[in-house]
Automatic annotation (TrEMBL):
PANTHER family named among the record's database cross-references: PYRUVATE DEHYDROGENASE E1 COMPONENT
Domain of life: Bacteria
Pfam family of the protein (one): Transket_pyr
Transketolase-like pyrimidine-binding domain sequence ranges: 1-163
Xref: InterPro entries: PDH/Transketolase (IPR051157), THDP-binding (IPR029061), Transketo_C/PFOR_II (IPR009014), Transketolase-like_Pyr-bd (IPR005475)
Identification of the protein by name: Transketolase
Length: 299
């Protein structure tokens, strides 16, 4: 996903003189030749994440289209005040592209982990959030975002699904349940393959999205109506329950049950390990999702 991001942005810089890249040391080597070809449009501020956001906000105020990139905690959490003021409060746009996800860089420790990034951006108005599940979806999300003027967050991952799906903001049915199914499972981004494996023996509708904000409330309402059961399980690659309020809003007209799986809210995992070990510890590997799904749908 990271290589696709760089290639797509470089192509956009060659086409569109508004596009500028703002970095804080991370991935600077990927844009070295582009910086020579487009002087002044690749800006590396060094390890100064707050300045990175401030510079991007200033560029946006002049009519440029800044693309800002770093690890998720350095892009969203550390400079959050600048994200709030220099983009949201000034009502200007940018494309923020993160790597690292919740625990992709587990060997680097907690400083490089950001399971709360999407929930944090959720406190600000007007953000579109893409969580691609495949490198081809990265290209699609960026090609849609770069020509615009709005605020967009693209959350890249080290984990990919086997195949890409269309990027359009709507929930896509990957596997349909019967009209008397147990309910609906929403898989976000790179969680799809493990969700399909985990629910293979359950009569549920599995839907997919790589765009979580705005959330497809209308689509979820329709899927629940077709499923005949208003039980919804959302599996997200970040903080568990991040989209719970979206599900509640989508199904406000009917009684429903919901469960959110993701990185645990009540457990601080103080370990390095591998991303696979972190997923297992938080119950979002295929085995953990299967157990949670059975316990939820088969009560």
């Amino acid at each position: 996903m990271r290589e696709t991001f760089a290639a797509t942005v470089i192509e956009a810089m060659d086409r569109d003189p508004r596009v500028a890249v703002v970095l804080a040391a991370i991935s600077a080597g990927m844009f070295r030749s582009t910086a020579i070809r487009h002087p002044g449009r690749v800006i590396d501020v060094g390890i100064r994440e707050q300045a990175m956001i401030g510079v991007a906000g200033g560029l946006a105020l002049t009519g440029m289209r800044p693309i800002v990139h770093s690890y998720a905690p350095f892009l969203v959490e550390r400079p959050f005040e600048q994200v709030k003021l220099d983009f949201a409060h000034q009502d200007v746009g940018a494309v923020l592209v993160s790597i690292g996800g919740s625990y992709d860089a587990s060997e680097e420790g907690r400083t490089h982990q950001a399971p709360g990034d999407v929930a944090l951006l959720d406190t600000l108005p007007g953000w579109t959030v893409h969580v691609p599940g495949h490198p081809d979806e990265v290209r699609g999300a960026l090609e849609a975002a770069i020509p615009g003027e709005d605020r967009v967050y693209v959350r890249l991952s080290g984990t990919s699904n086997r195949a890409s799906l269309p990027v359009g903001g709507r929930l896509s049915v990957v596997r349909a349940g019967t009209p008397r199914s147990a309910g609906v499972v929403v898989a976000v981004g790179p969680m799809l393959d493990r969700v399909l494996e985990a629910t293979a023996d359950l009569d549920v509708t599995v839907a997919y999205t790589s765009t979580v904000r705005p959330f497809d409330r209308t689509g979820l309402s329709a899927l629940v109506g077709a499923a005949g059961n208003a039980d919804v399980l959302v599996v997200e690659p970040y903080l568990a329950g991040t989209s719970a309020h979206e599900v509640a809003a989508a199904l406000a007209d009917r009684r429903h049950r919901q469960l959110g799986l993701g990185v645990s809210r009540d457990r601080e995992l103080r370990a390095y390990g591998t991303p696979e070990q972190h997923a297992r510890a938080h119950g979002v590997d295929a085995e953990g999702v299967a157990k949670a799904a059975r316990d939820f749908f088969l009560v």
